[in-house]
Amino acid sequence: MFTGIVRERGRVTAIEGGGDGIQLRIAAALTAARTAVGDSVAINGVCLTATSVADGELAFDAVAETLRRTSLGRLEPGSEVNLEPALRAGEPLGGHIVQGHVDGIGRVRSLEPVGDGAELTVEAPSELLRYCVEKGSITVDGVSLTVASLAGDTFTIALIPHTLAETTLARLAPGDEVNLEVDVLAKYVERLIAR
After folding, report:
1. Is this prediction's pTM over 0.85?
2. 49: part of which helix (H) or strand (E)?
């Protein structure tokens, strides 16, 4: 389990493989220092298992299913990624409950400066928008955020300066794909009501 509070930005150093699966190598000294082989780490919101950890670098395997459902297959060497090690018992839950199970891909419509912060508007599939509510939680590329407004096929979030400085979101441009995970509680409620 994760909280959507990014702990470090890592840099992709190598990608091997193709559409059937890839191995990602990521330089991230802080994350590597607290990660052992077999531990879970969220990479841009995608829960992956560390397969090796050495010299401040981590390796992860992403299978075809993961590549189909997320934007990880579009990463390139040099890409920056948001990293969050799995939550440990007793640590504060600073964001919201995040599983690292990406529900779908959104597309950035705009990123507009507002004072020292910014407003990010993302187009999302209708099957995900139904779980979004104003002032509810959503995870965008692994970052726990609050929905500020909904309109048509988009949602907008207000980004504070700290989020812009500590995550990759400040570098987004119109057309960029982002990993989305809606609030799992909404999905459980829907399932229970449907019965």
Report:
1. yes
2. strand 46-54
Q: Looking at this protein, which amino acid is placed at residue 69?
A: R
Q: Which of 38, 40, 44, 37 is nearest to 9 (CA)?
A: 44
Question: CA 58 to CA 84: how far, in whole Å?
Answer: 13
Of 127, 129, 126, 187, whose CA–CA distance to 156 is shortest?
Answer: 129
CB 26 within 8 A of CB 58: yes
CA distance 44 to 68: 15
Phi first, then psi: what are they for 142, rounded to 5°?
A: 85, 0
Q: How far apart are the first and last CA of the chain?
A: 27
Q: Which of 28-32, 84-88, 187-191 has the lowest mean pLDDT?
A: 187-191
State how far Cα 52 lies from the chain centre: 21
Q: How confident is the model over 90-142, as pLDDT tens digits?
A: 888 888 889 999 999 999 999 999 999 999 999 999 999 999 999 999 999 99
DSSP 2: B
Kindly give the residue spans of alpha helices, DSSP state H, lying in 55-160.
Answer: 64-69, 126-129
- 76: helix, strand or coil: coil
CA distance 82 to 48: 13
CA distance 138 to 187: 12
